[in-house]
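RECORD TYPE: inverse folding
INPUT: structure tokens
STRUCTURE:
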């Protein structure tokens, strides 16, 4: 009876079908490791993910172009600025940061307008 309950009430996270349970050790020179990390970063992947894709598919294509990657970095910086301005607005009042908020919003709109169809 105890076995019936445990089988019918199997809660928790489902088991992965394609579990990553095997390890492969690879030796690289420092130069090769730096190059591999750089390529993984350009592909916006972690080093293990990058190596796995290379081994399985034989190539990795970058999701973002260099220009799109630069825009992404700019948007992240602007988002950080907006967070800081929001904190300042809560601390000192909204009037003191109105100009900075409008400038940041204008910059974000410029980048987003580049991607409109």
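DESIGNED SEQUENCE:
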């Amino acid at each position: 009876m105890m076995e019936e309950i445990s089988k019918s009430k199997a809660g928790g996270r489902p088991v992965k079908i394609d579990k990553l349970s095997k390890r492969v050790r690879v030796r690289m020179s420092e130069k090769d490791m730096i190059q591999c990390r750089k390529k993984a970063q350009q592909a916006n992947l972690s080093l293990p993910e990058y190596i796995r894709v290379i081994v399985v598919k034989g190539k990795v294509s970058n999701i973002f172009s260099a220009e799109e990657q630069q825009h992404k970095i700019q948007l992240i910086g602007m988002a950080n600025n907006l967070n800081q301005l929001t904190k300042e607005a809560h601390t000192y009042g909204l009037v003191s940061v109105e100009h900075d908020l409008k400038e940041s919003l204008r910059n974000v709109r410029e980048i987003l307008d580049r991607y409109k169809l």
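NOTES: The helical segments are 2-8, 30-42, 47-57, 66-92, 98-113.
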